[in-house]
């Protein structure tokens, strides 16, 4: 295997992990070398667009909109350019990373300071100097505190989202949602009969209609979020057990199959796996959490697609079966209607939404336990985990080939054993091949490899 090709494969496979939303599969994954380069576009966008705070100074002038549009355009251009740069996964030195963090930390002080200077220069001369300084100092302190809090929250959110690959997971989740919606007939045809058997009875309950007619929308969405939280909790608990039972078949044939459409597809697996199979490598807690997030996202997408089908079904059923007189009798008063929804009773909309959320939660849980649902809906999700672990095993094998053979210890001297005799009981390695003696690598080659990896 060519050395340059191996280095390229390592970097390309790391980018593949990032695009799949599992960046923690990268070996020696850390903040400075892997997270900060991908956070840089967002941090630069926040820093540039924070200058919009100063646009308030020209709020009454004609060119206010031009300043606003120009600032946003610059921010978007910076984000786009740095995103293209970050896709190459550059690795910053300590000095570069420190400079980036210092620049970001200074911006919450620079923007209020500029506002303080502009406000001070634009103050009316009729106001006393002491009053102007006191008022501006109070405003400056409050603005600094607000900016520090906002920048800290945005940095923490960007760090979490980037570390765990939330944006690629959302992107993949949307693609899965489009795919599932195209196959919605098949999915709904398999899931709806069981879900309707569980939820249809509650739809004709008068007490539920009364509650939904009086319940504000904020509380309705709070109930939906509660069902989603239960779904995530149950899914995470079950998936943690499933990951421990995932079969890692790391034989060459299986590895070749799983590595298709990846940067490792062209590798000769027989040379990567000289002993017949690779050994599974234990996962860290953060790697397990990254896989759980990937699986939970996929599970929630399927549940959402099923929930949309349930909502449509109950809304249609209510329009066909529940007459206005029946709804008034169940509610005890004339039902509220919505002009946006063409006079549809709000109780019907909220009822359908609540049952759809409950049915989605039930579907997500039963798809992991029921044998038939597990085969149809959950097994393909576990296949993604098995493929990710197989690609990771090959990636680690390639990385182990690159690093030890190209970074020898130049300071070590071979022990002088002129009288050494061969061991008569020693057996040659089955994979050993005769060849010319290995020459020590030059310091320039070692330095190049270390800087590249």
UniProtKB/TrEMBL annotation:
<feature type="transmembrane region" description="Helical">
    <location>
        <begin position="300"/>
        <end position="322"/>
    </location>
</feature>
<feature type="transmembrane region" description="Helical">
    <location>
        <begin position="191"/>
        <end position="212"/>
    </location>
</feature>
<feature type="transmembrane region" description="Helical">
    <location>
        <begin position="218"/>
        <end position="236"/>
    </location>
</feature>
<keyword id="KW-0812">Transmembrane</keyword>
<protein>
    <recommendedName>
        <fullName>Integral membrane protein</fullName>
    </recommendedName>
</protein>
<feature type="transmembrane region" description="Helical">
    <location>
        <begin position="35"/>
        <end position="56"/>
    </location>
</feature>
<feature type="transmembrane region" description="Helical">
    <location>
        <begin position="97"/>
        <end position="119"/>
    </location>
</feature>
<feature type="transmembrane region" description="Helical">
    <location>
        <begin position="342"/>
        <end position="365"/>
    </location>
</feature>
<feature type="region of interest" description="Disordered">
    <location>
        <begin position="408"/>
        <end position="453"/>
    </location>
</feature>
<keyword id="KW-0472">Membrane</keyword>
<feature type="transmembrane region" description="Helical">
    <location>
        <begin position="62"/>
        <end position="85"/>
    </location>
</feature>
<keyword id="KW-1133">Transmembrane helix</keyword>
<feature type="compositionally biased region" description="Low complexity">
    <location>
        <begin position="408"/>
        <end position="419"/>
    </location>
</feature>
<feature type="transmembrane region" description="Helical">
    <location>
        <begin position="139"/>
        <end position="170"/>
    </location>
</feature>
């Amino acid at each position: 295997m060519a050395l340059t090709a191996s280095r390229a494969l390592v970097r390309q496979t790391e980018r593949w992990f990032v695009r799949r939303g599992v960046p923690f599969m990268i070996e020696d994954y850390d903040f400075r070398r892997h997270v900060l380069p991908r956070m840089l576009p967002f941090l630069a966008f926040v820093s540039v667009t924070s200058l919009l705070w100063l646009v308030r100074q020209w709020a009454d002038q004609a060119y206010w909109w031009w300043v606003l549009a120009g600032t946003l355009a610059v921010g978007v251009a910076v984000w786009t350019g740095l995103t293209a740069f970050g896709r190459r996964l550059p690795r910053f030195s300590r000095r570069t990373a420190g400079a980036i963090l210092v620049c970001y930390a200074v911006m919450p002080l620079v923007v209020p300071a500029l506002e303080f200077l502009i406000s001070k220069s634009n103050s009316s001369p009729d106001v006393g100097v002491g009053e102007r300084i006191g008022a501006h100092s109070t405003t400056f302190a409050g603005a600094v505190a607000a900016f520090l809090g906002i920048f800290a929250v945005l940095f923490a959110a960007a760090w979490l989202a980037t570390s765990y690959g939330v944006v690629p997971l959302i992107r993949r989740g949307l693609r899965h949602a489009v795919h599932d919606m195209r196959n919605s007939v098949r999915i709904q045809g398999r899931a709806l009969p069981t879900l309707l058997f569980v939820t249809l009875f509650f739809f004709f309950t008068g007490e539920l209609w009364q509650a939904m007619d009086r319940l504000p929308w904020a509380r309705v969405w709070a109930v939906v979020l509660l069902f989603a939280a239960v779904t995530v909790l149950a899914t995470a608990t079950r998936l943690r057990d499933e990951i421990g039972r995932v079969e890692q078949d790391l034989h060459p044939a299986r590895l070749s199959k799983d590595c298709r459409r990846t940067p490792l597809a062209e590798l000769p697996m027989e040379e990567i796996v000289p002993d017949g199979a690779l050994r599974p490598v234990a996962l860290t807690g953060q790697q397990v959490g990254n896989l759980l997030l990937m699986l939970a996202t996929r599970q929630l997408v399927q549940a959402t697609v099923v929930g949309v089908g349930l909502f449509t079904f109950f809304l249609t059923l209510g329009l066909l079966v529940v007459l206005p007189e029946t709804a008034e009798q169940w509610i005890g008063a004339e039902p509220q209607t919505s002009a946006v929804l063409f006079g549809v009773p709000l109780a019907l909309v909220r009822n359908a939404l609540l049952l759809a959320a409950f049915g989605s939660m039930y579907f997500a849980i039963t798809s992991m336990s029921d044998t038939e649902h597990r085969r149809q809906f959950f097994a393909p999700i576990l296949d993604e985990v098995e493929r990710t672990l197989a690609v990771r095993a090959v990636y680690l094998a390639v990385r182990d080939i690159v690093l030890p053979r190209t970074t020898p210890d130049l300071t070590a001297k071979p022990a002088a054993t002129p009288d050494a005799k061969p061991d008569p009981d020693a057996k040659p390695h089955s994979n050993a091949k005769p060849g010319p003696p290995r020459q020590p690598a030059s310091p320039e080659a070692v330095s190049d490899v270390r800087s590249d990896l």
